[in-house]
Specification:
Layout: E1 20-23, E2 32-35, H1 36-47, H2 49-52, H3 65-77
Antiparallel strand pairs: 1-2
Length: 81
């Protein structure tokens, strides 16, 4: 007997925006959209990670080489490097 709910898996690369997914509601109500990128952005902003994390240092867990220049450019654009 399968007890796990059904779900979806999204393959997303670090450089891509997180998707908006549909959250099923009860009965005949239409699914509600949930913008995952917006949720992550709000959590980051409200938690104040930009004041906690020192973005001038390399990350504790190294990024794959293909993402290093992307991350550096992103942080420079935000004035964090």
């Amino acid at each position: 007997m399968e007890r796990r709910p059904k779900g979806s898996v999204y393959r997303i690369f670090l450089t891509q925006r997180l998707p908006t997914i549909q959250i099923p509601l009860k009965g005949d109500d239409r699914d509600a959209p949930l913008d995952l990128q917006r949720c992550l952005d709000l959590t980051y902003d409200r938690a104040g990670y930009d004041g906690i994390v020192n973005y001038r240092k390399p990350p504790v867990v190294a990024l794959p080489e293909r993402y290093m220049s992307w991350a550096d450019e992103l942080l420079r654009g935000e004035g964090l490097r």
